[in-house]
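In response to the reviewer comment on reproducibility (Comment 2.3), we provide here a single inverse folding case reported in full, input and output, so that an independent group could reproduce the run without further information from us. The structure tokens appear first.
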């Protein structure tokens, strides 16, 4: 294999796979990516949970393939200047030439690289890239990270078919909070489906969608999901198991409704949470007619208080929250105002995006 490639092109391609390759693996091959040059050149990276395959623009001088250490080549490419010549040599060595710089990297043969799942005859959906990115941004923050309840470490894609449309609901929860958003898709579906996309897959998809536009194609299988974005294919294994009944968690009859300016609330939360206990991040909301007083008390350090205006006409109520959970939810929502729907001090609070995009977050209060 021998090919010439511009620095910017190779650097961008290697940047795209850094989140996919497994850096702490016991399988050395998973810290590598495969570069293949045939009629065209493309790269593949996987950690066995998610996989990314995409084209790369290069002048192919000799065809071939090689598995290359992803992190080390990325570090080299960032530092060199001008065009880069990649040339495979005996015993899976790779020679990298750029200007007067020359490097040699030990690679691995193509045969050792794990086979990636292929798209078969599957259910297929088309969705706008911007819409999907927005839906992920408004829900993925609430998913678990290393929860022993496996299913909470992913984002639920609940697909509900109608006559000529499909309703897509994205749900994320870690047991303390739940974020949900729904949207109607023009693509019909034959049957209802509930798929759990791992958090890492959702985050990689969001990152790719940040520089994408137009329509993407989603192929749905029992164990895998495929996202085709232009010439790039992101594959993810699905989490097996039953997702919690999210609909039961969403409060339906919260009588007390408080409308707050989004930016004002966010800034006040950041300031008052400075004095909260690190483990709990607890901030108390004293809600009265026309205002809210935010209070955090830490006996070892001190306390913080701040008053902000609010649209509220009910009886006074005090309720405690994890400030980080509130800030995550508020930051993810659009519009100038946020609506808090409250029942009792220890009943779930519903946060609603006043901009009307359908994004909601349920947060369990704390004892303060």
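Designed residues, in position order:
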């Amino acid at each position: 294999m021998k090919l010439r490639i511009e620095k910017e092109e190779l650097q961008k391609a290697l940047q795209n796979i850094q989140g996919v390759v497994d850096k702490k693996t016991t399988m050395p091959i998973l810290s590598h990516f495969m570069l293949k040059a045939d009629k065209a050149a493309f790269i593949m990276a996987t950690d066995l949970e998610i996989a990314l395959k995409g084209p790369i623009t290069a002048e192919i001088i000799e065809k071939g393939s090689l598995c290359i250490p992803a992190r080390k080549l990325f570090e080299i490419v960032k530092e060199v200047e001008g065009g880069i010549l990649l040339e495979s040599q005996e015993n899976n060595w790779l020679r990298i030439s750029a200007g007067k710089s020359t490097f040699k990297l030990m690679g691995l043969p193509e045969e050792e690289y794990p086979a990636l799942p292929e798209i078969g005859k599957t259910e297929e959906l088309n969705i706008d890239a911007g819409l999907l990115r927005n839906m992920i941004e408004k829900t993925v923050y609430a998913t678990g990270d290393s929860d022993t309840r496996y299913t909470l470490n992913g984002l639920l894609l609940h697909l509900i078919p109608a006559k000529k449309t499909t309703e897509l609901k994205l749900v994320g929860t870690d047991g303390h909070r739940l974020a949900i958003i729904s949207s109607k898709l023009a693509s019909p579906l034959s049957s209802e489906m509930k798929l759990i996309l791992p958090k890492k897959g959702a985050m990689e998809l969001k990152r790719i969608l940040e520089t994408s536009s137009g329509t993407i194609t989603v192929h749905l299988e029992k164990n895998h999901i495929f996202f085709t974005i232009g010439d790039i294919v992101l594959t993810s294994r699905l989490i097996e198991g039953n997702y919690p009944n999210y609909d039961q968690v969403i409060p339906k009859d919260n009588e007390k409704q408080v409308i707050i300016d989004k930016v004002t609330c966010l800034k006040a939360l950041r300031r008052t949470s400075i004095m909260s206990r690190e483990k709990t991040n607890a901030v108390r909301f004293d809600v009265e007619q026309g205002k809210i007083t935010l209070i955090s008390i830490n006996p070892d350090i001190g306390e913080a208080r701040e008053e902000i205006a609010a649209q509220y006409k009910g009886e006074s109520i005090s309720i405690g929250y994890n400030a980080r959970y509130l800030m995550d939810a508020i930051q993810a929502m659009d519009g100038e105002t946020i609506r808090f729907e409250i029942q009792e001090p220890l009943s779930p609070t519903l946060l609603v995006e006043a901009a009307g995009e359908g994004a909601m977050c349920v947060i369990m209060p704390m004892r303060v």
